[in-house]
Fold these 3 entries.
Entry 1:
Amino acid sequence: MSKCLVCQNEISPFISFGKMPLANGFLTQDQFKEEYFFEMKVAHCSKCNMVQLTEQPTKELMFNEHYAFYSGTSRAMDQHFEQFAQHVISDYINSDNPFVVEIGSNDGIMLKNFKKANIRHLGIEPSENVAAVARGNGINTISKFFNKELAEEIIKEYGKADAFLAANVMCHIPYMHSVVDGIKTLLKPNGIVMFEDPYWGDVIEKVSYDQIYDEHVFLFSVQSIKYLFEQHDMEVVDVEPQETHGGSMRYVIAHKGARKISENVHKQIKKEIALGLHLPETYVTFKKNCEASRDKLKSILVQLKNEGKRVVGYAATSKSTTILNYCDIGSDLIEFICDTTPIKQGKYSPGKHVPIKPYEEFKKDYPDYALLFAYNHAKEILAKEEEFKKMNKKWIMYVPKIGIK
Ligand code: DWN
Ligand code: SAH
Ligand code: ZN
């Protein structure tokens, strides 16, 4: 038993994925012996509906000057964040000298659009190496972890914010009450909060359990976000489903009573109830679905190995750490994983120690099969890899369905 991070209710895990390393803990051979592991268990809170890890590594272990994920590695995400920024600018910002704050701003993939539009902005990005890229491009960025105290410091230096933005970071922070308190203090009376994260409804429907890893301490739903913000006198005024990261939800939030609540919010909650996100049996089924997915993927790889086929992993995503460790897939089954991120190349995957090689190694000598760990970028990647297909090589997919195509 442990306590819900949002409402303090007693919770107990419905699944354990076993021992897990840091999802972005790519390492060198001499670091193998001191590798960090924790038991990754997930619980659903019956009171506030928040789905959460019951244990998480410290923030400094995960987010530091060696953080391996650079947002700018996907062109499609670049376009996504340009549209996100345009949406904020045209639909939500109308004061004289607006000020926009983004947390988890990484290499500046979103904020560069505000800089281009000459809008006052501040990025909060604790991982120094990715923040340095943003600063190098003239994006105003500080390397700290966002919380209530930092919000107060920001107000002293810049004043209050018209918009508070976050993408794929709110679900990384366990001390949510300090964060939401900070947002509430920082936001102007008519200001807007917009953030998006992988959506628990999509994870349940697609059995995309690889969205669960150390960094993702929460898997949000509209119901759980509504509960959380209502504790702080704020309300969800709109929700906008997104296709990114295999299915995400963007939450639009304002001070209580400041804006009209869209019908979309009620509609989405109805969908969540129909999907049974509040019911214990949903979690029993999800666990069974994860096990079935794991067994099927593993059996495909074992069969290909027995047939003497070459299989390579495509993209060393955070998600792949969950897949490799939970399914017990090592370099006996996949030769290596190719990735375009220089900091990952030449290292080994967390836990299972599969070599990570530059993308060019994949191009140089196509394997018979490529296991697509970045299914969220499938459109972009499949378009780029037409030649691979033409040579009659095959993709192994596991989300939204396990199979070969
Ligand atoms: O929430 C998070 C999201 C935003 O990003 C973080 N906690 C960590 C990270 O998750 P991820 O690692 O699962 O993200 P992606 O975007 O699925 O990772 C893409 C990886 O794939 C990068 O290492 C770059 C690589 N890649 C590649 O090798 N070739 C990507 C593309 C598009 C490609 O063509
Ligand atoms: N927004 C980007 C990056 C997401 S990765 C995108 O969607 O592509 C998550 C980022 O959040 C990392 O760069 C990490 O360093 C940062 N982060 C983690 N905890 C944070 C906190 N408490 N405050 C601000 N940023 C944080
Ligand atoms: Zn709770």
Entry 2:
Amino acid sequence: MRVVFLGPPGAGKGTQARRLSQLLGVPHISTGEMLRAAITQGTALGQTVRQYVEAGKLVPDVLMQELVRQRLSEPDAANGFVLDGYPRNVQQAQTLDEILGELGTRLDRAVLLDLDPDLLVERLSGRLVCPVCGANYHRRFNPPKHDSVCDRDGATLVQRADDRPGTVRARLEEYTKQMAPVTDYYRQRGLLAVVDASGTIDQVWRGLLRVLGLAEQAENVIEEG
Ligand code: ADP
Ligand code: ADP
């Protein structure tokens, strides 16, 4: 299955996309994580994109296009992927269709995680991430087992630079400006599935499985596991 996740910063895209990729056995491709890794590693791309990411601005489409084309062409994405963070505007949605066309395939579903803006700030301000494995937590809603350290590798969790209040506002504005035409784009093509993202992580997960027609498959995995 080839799925993209849409939704404002903090809606829970990364959290749900990671679960879905595990269930389906396909990679979770997060453009935000790829950019943050490039910045941390100090690559040429990282140096170019740093100013945009830290200001909560979108990285130019031409740079994103190459990044996504290369990643989707890798062998592990041949049988499906969960793409999180791309597309962010209609130009990127068109580019994604072109890339998939070149690869001889197409998108199956675009999932919009729908959430009241008031709840977003609360989710973003409490978000903690593992700088080593990218796992994400929330101070209140999804805390690690031990204070401030990652359950998987014990690394000290950090707050993302762009989750501070000033940048959060810029990101939400950027999202509001660009995103309505993207959801229209997928709605017109019959690919859009809307999931209410205001419940708990497990409630949202169940809604997601329902719209993707995967509820039964997930039950079997739980029974077998
Ligand atoms: P969130 O998880 O809060 O929605 P992301 O991790 O997806 O945010 O993205 C963080 C930042 O990386 C964005 O604010 C933007 O600067 C940059 N970015 C990520 N994906 C894209 C994209 N598709 N186009 C342009 N910029 C992007
Ligand atoms: P996005 O990728 O859309 O920016 P994340 O998946 O990183 O969003 O989630 C943002 C923050 O909210 C994280 O700290 C995450 O642990 C937390 N979170 C995710 N889903 C929920 C939920 N349904 N209820 C409460 N908190 C959530």
Entry 3:
Amino acid sequence: MIRRNLKRIGILTGGGDCPGLNAVIRAVAKTAQNDHGIEVIGILDSYWGLVCENFNVLTNADVSGILNVGGTILGTSRMDPFKEGHKRGLLPSAEEDWGYVRRLLKRHHIDALVAVGGDGTLRVAARAWEAGIPIVGVPKTIDNDIHETDQTFGFNSAVSIVMNALDILHTTAMSHHRAMVVEVMGRTVGWLALQAGVAGGGDVILIPEIPYNEEIVFERVCERSRIGKRFSIIVVAEGARSAKGKTQYSGEMDQSGRKILGGIGRDLGDRIQEGTGISTRVTTLGYLQRGGPPTAFDRLLATQFGHAAVGLIVEEQFGQMVALRGNRIKAVSLEKATTRIKSVQKDNPLLAVARSVGTIFGNEKG
Ligand code: F6P
């Protein structure tokens, strides 16, 4: 069914930023205007900007020159708009939350929304659709943990950044005959550590899905030294933990009240040095992994996602998320995509490939 009276749509970006957000914004704004004559409103700082009515019209000129630029021109946040709205007396009552949003959208003549984000942002989008708000989702995140899509945009760029860092760290580790521990993001899943670790030739890759035994890690580092390999690269996901240990958190909370992960790299580095007697250094890549220009893959994926999101709106397929399936862009249910996190399964073929080229995951001797 074609919605003939669609005049204006809004777009917001939520959660942690990543390369490719601007490419989606550009594709949505250009497709909507050029193909359908629909005006696009940029909503600043995610759902918080929505309840605060912080809007800007996005013309073709506004989205020109941003395809290759990291971050998001709309800004982002992880703030719970309703919790904060109640605290500041902006929203009347919890029962009325979505009614309030429906009324403000009507007042601004916004017919539908595009929510670009990770699991948190998309879960809110699924709730919005349940409450009758016409909305579609676009999956973003360097963690690649969204179900129902083969890949999120932003992930390929982060893999590339981490791989380049591993290349750089290899040369200094080699020169000094050191063990180099590299902590990478990814929250509770190991996609980034796994793919970047394999692409960057990591000797040991530790991911949350495979709790490791530190004795096995020590042994591999010592063995490499014994056979004349005078360095070892250990890639550790921030959410990884030893079979005996616990997930490590930085001690801080993010805006949504989630505990921020971090610290495993430092801890593991100390343990390796102590357990092997081999000089060990630790690099935490942190926010370097989320910034800068998107790779060609992410520009293409983000552009196709943005284009497809407008297509869903025009066809009134609300409550859906655009997804990559094989080499096609498809629509999947937002609810289904957000019921759980996509983690690395034990039978992922890349694990076997990595083992064949000598990488260990710390759970068994290679
Ligand atoms: O979800 C993306 C991500 O970059 C995670 O990999 C990381 O744990 C988290 O965000 C960091 O969040 P913040 O921006 O709140 O520090």
